[in-house]
Amino acid sequence: MPSSSDTRMVVVAQFAGSHGVRGAFKLRSFTDDPEALFSYGALTAPGGRNVTPKRVRVVKPAVFLVEADEISSPEDCEVFKGALLSVPRTALPAPEDDDDFYVEDLVGLRVISTKGDEIGSVKAVPNYGAGDLIEIKTADGPLILPFTKASVPDIDLVTGMVTVELLEDEDPGS
Protein backbone atom coordinates (compact mmCIF):
# COMPACT_ATOMS: atom_id res chain seq x y z
CA MET A 1 0.00 0.00 0.00
CA PRO A 2 1.18 3.57 -0.54
CA SER A 3 3.14 5.29 2.18
CA SER A 4 2.12 8.59 3.73
CA SER A 5 4.89 10.32 1.76
CA ASP A 6 3.45 8.98 -1.49
CA THR A 7 2.85 11.84 -3.93
CA ARG A 8 1.23 9.85 -6.75
CA MET A 9 -1.83 11.47 -8.26
CA VAL A 10 -4.96 9.57 -9.28
CA VAL A 11 -7.34 10.86 -11.97
CA VAL A 12 -10.84 11.13 -10.46
CA ALA A 13 -12.71 13.52 -12.78
CA GLN A 14 -12.73 15.46 -16.02
CA PHE A 15 -13.55 19.10 -16.60
CA ALA A 16 -16.53 18.89 -18.96
CA GLY A 17 -16.99 22.53 -19.98
CA SER A 18 -18.24 25.90 -18.80
CA HIS A 19 -21.84 26.69 -17.97
CA GLY A 20 -23.24 30.21 -17.94
CA VAL A 21 -21.47 33.53 -17.47
CA ARG A 22 -20.43 33.33 -13.80
CA GLY A 23 -17.79 30.61 -14.06
CA ALA A 24 -19.88 27.56 -13.23
CA PHE A 25 -18.66 24.42 -14.97
CA LYS A 26 -19.59 20.81 -15.57
CA LEU A 27 -17.50 18.10 -14.00
CA ARG A 28 -17.63 14.37 -14.87
CA SER A 29 -16.78 12.07 -11.93
CA PHE A 30 -14.87 8.83 -12.51
CA THR A 31 -15.27 7.57 -8.93
CA ASP A 32 -17.39 4.54 -7.97
CA ASP A 33 -19.48 6.83 -5.77
CA PRO A 34 -19.67 9.97 -7.95
CA GLU A 35 -20.49 12.32 -5.06
CA ALA A 36 -17.49 11.09 -3.04
CA LEU A 37 -15.39 13.13 -5.47
CA PHE A 38 -16.18 16.24 -3.44
CA SER A 39 -14.78 14.81 -0.20
CA TYR A 40 -11.21 14.52 -1.54
CA GLY A 41 -10.34 18.22 -1.41
CA ALA A 42 -8.82 20.29 -4.21
CA LEU A 43 -8.75 18.75 -7.67
CA THR A 44 -5.50 19.26 -9.58
CA ALA A 45 -5.30 19.82 -13.33
CA PRO A 46 -2.16 19.24 -15.42
CA GLY A 47 0.30 22.03 -14.73
CA GLY A 48 -0.63 22.09 -11.04
CA ARG A 49 -3.70 24.34 -11.30
CA ASN A 50 -6.20 23.55 -8.54
CA VAL A 51 -9.98 23.70 -8.46
CA THR A 52 -11.72 23.45 -5.10
CA PRO A 53 -15.43 22.69 -5.61
CA LYS A 54 -17.60 24.66 -3.20
CA ARG A 55 -21.14 24.52 -4.63
CA VAL A 56 -22.29 21.39 -6.40
CA ARG A 57 -25.50 20.35 -8.13
CA VAL A 58 -26.22 17.01 -9.82
CA VAL A 59 -26.94 17.38 -13.56
CA LYS A 60 -27.16 13.66 -14.31
CA PRO A 61 -25.49 10.57 -12.86
CA ALA A 62 -21.76 11.26 -12.46
CA VAL A 63 -22.04 14.77 -13.98
CA PHE A 64 -22.21 17.83 -11.75
CA LEU A 65 -22.58 21.57 -12.13
CA VAL A 66 -19.88 23.08 -9.94
CA GLU A 67 -18.74 26.46 -8.69
CA ALA A 68 -15.25 27.12 -7.33
CA ASP A 69 -13.44 30.22 -6.07
CA GLU A 70 -10.65 29.70 -8.62
CA ILE A 71 -13.07 30.08 -11.56
CA SER A 72 -15.27 33.15 -11.90
CA SER A 73 -15.85 33.48 -15.66
CA PRO A 74 -16.17 31.41 -18.83
CA GLU A 75 -12.68 32.65 -19.74
CA ASP A 76 -11.29 31.10 -16.52
CA CYS A 77 -12.88 27.81 -17.61
CA GLU A 78 -10.95 27.78 -20.88
CA VAL A 79 -7.65 26.83 -19.21
CA PHE A 80 -9.34 23.73 -17.74
CA LYS A 81 -11.18 22.68 -20.91
CA GLY A 82 -11.15 18.86 -21.12
CA ALA A 83 -8.58 18.57 -18.31
CA LEU A 84 -8.32 15.37 -16.32
CA LEU A 85 -8.41 16.26 -12.63
CA SER A 86 -6.48 14.37 -9.98
CA VAL A 87 -6.12 14.05 -6.22
CA PRO A 88 -3.22 12.63 -4.22
CA ARG A 89 -3.51 8.85 -3.81
CA THR A 90 -3.41 9.40 -0.04
CA ALA A 91 -6.68 11.39 -0.21
CA LEU A 92 -8.59 8.32 -1.39
CA PRO A 93 -10.14 5.91 1.11
CA ALA A 94 -8.64 2.48 1.63
CA PRO A 95 -10.28 -0.23 -0.49
CA GLU A 96 -13.07 -1.96 1.43
CA ASP A 97 -12.16 -5.53 0.44
CA ASP A 98 -8.78 -7.29 0.53
CA ASP A 99 -9.25 -8.18 -3.15
CA ASP A 100 -9.86 -4.53 -4.11
CA PHE A 101 -7.16 -2.03 -5.00
CA TYR A 102 -6.59 1.14 -6.97
CA VAL A 103 -4.84 0.45 -10.27
CA GLU A 104 -2.39 3.21 -9.34
CA ASP A 105 -1.22 0.94 -6.48
CA LEU A 106 0.11 -1.51 -9.09
CA VAL A 107 2.52 0.92 -10.76
CA GLY A 108 6.09 -0.04 -9.92
CA LEU A 109 5.31 -3.55 -8.63
CA ARG A 110 7.49 -6.47 -9.75
CA VAL A 111 6.04 -8.70 -12.45
CA ILE A 112 6.78 -12.41 -12.69
CA SER A 113 5.40 -15.10 -14.97
CA THR A 114 3.35 -18.04 -13.71
CA LYS A 115 6.56 -20.07 -14.30
CA GLY A 116 8.39 -17.84 -11.80
CA ASP A 117 10.49 -15.92 -14.34
CA GLU A 118 11.21 -12.26 -13.66
CA ILE A 119 9.46 -10.17 -16.36
CA GLY A 120 9.86 -6.54 -15.25
CA SER A 121 7.67 -4.01 -13.46
CA VAL A 122 4.22 -2.50 -13.94
CA LYS A 123 4.53 0.76 -15.85
CA ALA A 124 0.82 1.63 -16.23
CA VAL A 125 -2.72 0.27 -16.36
CA PRO A 126 -4.25 2.17 -19.30
CA ASN A 127 -7.70 1.81 -20.81
CA TYR A 128 -8.10 2.99 -24.39
CA GLY A 129 -11.79 2.12 -24.54
CA ALA A 130 -11.78 -1.64 -25.06
CA GLY A 131 -10.93 -2.65 -21.49
CA ASP A 132 -8.06 -2.31 -19.06
CA LEU A 133 -4.55 -3.27 -20.12
CA ILE A 134 -1.42 -3.79 -18.06
CA GLU A 135 1.77 -2.29 -19.46
CA ILE A 136 4.92 -3.96 -18.22
CA LYS A 137 8.37 -2.42 -18.50
CA THR A 138 10.77 -5.22 -19.52
CA ALA A 139 14.45 -5.29 -20.51
CA ASP A 140 13.32 -5.86 -24.12
CA GLY A 141 10.81 -2.99 -24.17
CA PRO A 142 7.16 -2.65 -23.20
CA LEU A 143 4.88 -5.67 -22.95
CA ILE A 144 1.11 -5.03 -22.97
CA LEU A 145 -1.39 -7.63 -21.83
CA PRO A 146 -5.14 -7.54 -21.25
CA PHE A 147 -5.81 -6.85 -17.57
CA THR A 148 -7.99 -9.92 -17.06
CA LYS A 149 -7.95 -12.73 -14.50
CA ALA A 150 -6.63 -15.07 -17.24
CA SER A 151 -3.66 -12.81 -18.06
CA VAL A 152 -3.09 -11.50 -14.52
CA PRO A 153 -4.02 -14.37 -12.22
CA ASP A 154 -2.46 -12.98 -9.03
CA ILE A 155 -1.80 -9.59 -7.49
CA ASP A 156 -0.10 -9.50 -4.10
CA LEU A 157 0.18 -5.97 -2.77
CA VAL A 158 1.82 -7.18 0.45
CA THR A 159 4.82 -8.67 -1.37
CA GLY A 160 4.60 -6.13 -4.19
CA MET A 161 4.30 -8.75 -6.90
CA VAL A 162 2.05 -9.23 -9.93
CA THR A 163 1.92 -12.63 -11.65
CA VAL A 164 1.10 -12.79 -15.35
CA GLU A 165 0.32 -15.66 -17.72
CA LEU A 166 2.32 -15.30 -20.92
CA LEU A 167 1.50 -16.91 -24.26
CA GLU A 168 4.40 -18.68 -26.01
CA ASP A 169 5.03 -15.72 -28.36
CA GLU A 170 4.96 -13.22 -25.46
CA ASP A 171 7.39 -15.19 -23.29
CA PRO A 172 10.73 -13.31 -23.22
CA GLY A 173 12.49 -16.63 -22.58
CA SER A 174 11.18 -18.37 -25.73
Output the keywords.
elongated, 40% strand, 5-stranded antiparallel sheet, 13 strands, 174 residues, 6-stranded mixed sheet, disordered N terminus, 1 helix, mainly beta
Write the layout of secondary structure elements.
Blueprint: E1 9-19, E2 24-29, E3 43-44, E4 50-51, E5 53-60, E6 63-68, H1 74-78, E7 84-88, E8 110-113, E9 118-124, E10 133-138, E11 141-146, E12 154-156, E13 161-164
Parallel strand pairs: 8-13
Antiparallel strand pairs: 1-2, 1-7, 2-6, 3-4, 5-6, 8-9, 9-10, 10-11, 12-13
Summed up:
This protein is an all-beta fold and 174 residues long.
Instruction: Compute the average pLDDT.
Output: 87
Helix/strand-derived category reads mainly beta
Number of helices: 1
Total count of strands:
13
Walk across the major sheet and give the strand order.
11-10-9-8-13-12
Low-confidence stretches: 1-5
What is the H/E string?
EEEEEEHEEEEEEE
Query: What fraction of the residues are assigned to beta strands by DSSP?
Result: 35-45%
Q: Indicate the radius of gyration in whole angstroms.
A: 19 Å
Overall, the morphology is elongated
Euclidean distance between termini CA atoms: 34 Å
- Note the main sheet: 6 strands, mixed
**Proportion of helical residues:** under 10%
Your description of this structure?
This protein is mostly beta strands and 174 residues long. It has one helix and 13 strands; from the N terminus they run ββββββαβββββββ. Strands 11-10-9-8-13-12 form a six-stranded mixed beta sheet, with no helix packed on it. Strands 5-6-2-1-7 form a five-stranded antiparallel beta sheet.
